[in-house]
Amino acid sequence: MVPTLVRTLGVKGHRPIVGTRDNKDLIYVFVSMNLVTGRLTTRLLPSQTRHRRRYGTHKTRRLQQAFARHLRDVARAYPAQRHRRVVLTIDNAPWHRGKPIQEVLAQFPHLELYRLPSYSPQLNCVERLWKLLRRRATHNRLFEHLAEMAHALRGSLSYFQMLPRRILSLVMSPRRRAKLPAA
Q: Which residue range or ranges hold the Tc1-like transposase DDE domain (predicted)?
């Protein structure tokens, strides 16, 4: 996630001012959405350029390791004893495949990955959550430090976790949405 600039309201005749930073640091967010209960399983990975130079870890390798840890989080949240089959819909990002991912899938055989066709973000339910998360956590905000952005993202994810009905509304048709019980 990167802070984003969007339209905003302002006083007529005065241009709103939003600060910016020449900062290449960003935060990768991994989220799994339960499409039945609205529960979220999340993991944040700060990606700081100075740490990349110091440790020399390749971006794809770091993201593969983080995604493998996220899959372990999902396996703990949905153990095989209670959930025979857990299907995760993913896109074709390079960090969604590779040896670390195969090792986790071998360790937790009840986890399955379902790959979406290339260039089809409209089929991925989590893309709708990204839009809301950006609007709530990063739109028109200047973060002095990466930790502040991580705090804003965690706060917004916690907010959405407290509102599973809101999560479910992202994936349901308007007709099914009307049948949801009141919160």
A: 50-148
